Amino acid sequence: MAKRRGKKSARRWHLPQLPQWDLSWATSRGTLVAVIWVLGAGGLVTAWVLGTPRLESYASAHQPGGDVVVRLVDLPMWVETDLETMLVETAVRHIGDDPLQRADLMDAREALLATGWFVRVDQVRRVGPQVVDITATLAEPFAVIRDRSRDHLVDAQGRVLPRTYRAGEPTGYITLTGAQYGAPTHSAMTWPGADVTAALDVLVLIRDRPWLDQVVRIDLSSYRKAGSIRLITDRDCTITWGRAPGDEAGSDVPAVQKLSYLDYHFEQYGHIGRGLDELDITGDTVVGR
After folding, report:
1. Class of 143-288 in CATH
2. Could you read off the pLDDT of 41-88 as tens digits, one per residue?
3. Which of 95, 104, 149, 264 is the most exposed place for a label (fewest CB within 10 A)?
């Protein structure tokens, strides 16, 4: 008897459920951009860290030959060649030939200020690989003040400059004598004393007068007791000026009136001293003898 053949039942396989990933284009693109950005930023940082020292090394090793040229910008006409040379050499000694360095420019600025010739140094900057420009204000010589056996150069504010002369040595500047206090210990310091300030104020007042070169000295020996200033001319005439400009009191006439007296003497007699030994211009009438 033949056996009955039945159908074999099919087996069912159940796969494990996989996590559902969102593989949309917008999400994939955002993820890709983020990965690229992180990798790019890391590459830039690495390149900067590794490349900067090499760049600096390359720049330092490929400098043009020759010395650094230092230029003092807008130098006043009164600056002599010797002084200019000294100031330039002072700066050059502190400036290297590496344009990536800034510390040497700061050192040069401090060195220039230390010379005592500058009121301020505004800027020390490289304008080329081997060229440095310096913009500064110099203290302009104005008078000399005698202290014992030396005459000290000062500017119009009484700032002491780093230059002295033997007492009486020709300098081309009007000399202040009889000051109450001695010279400061260092250059760039201001000479103390109201008498010196008063004398410099008179000099500022007369500096543009055509007869200025007839005044050779200002005597301050009477200032402490009487507050009086005296002008000494090149013909040994002593002119009693009186008190400082703006500080007149009592019978002491204003400075503008004193100037008019001296202007008149110069126009009429050719000399502010009128050929006399003494003149007193402090009152309403000039007294001479």
Report:
1. alpha beta
2. 555 545 444 444 443 433 333 344 458 999 999 999 999 999 999 999
3. 149
- Per the listing, tokens 């100031």 go with 87
d(CA 283, CA 202) in angstroms, rounded, equals 17
Cβ proximity of 160 and 154 under 8 Å: yes
For the chain, the structural domain boundaries read: 69-138, 143-288
Architecture of domain 69-138: Roll (3.10)
Structural contact between residues 183 and 151, judged by C-beta atoms closer than 8 angstroms: no
CB 175 within 8 A of CB 151: yes
* Per-residue pLDDT tens digits for 267-286: 999 999 999 999 999 999 99
State both tokens at 247: 């500080």
Structure-block tokens of residue 208 = 């543009």
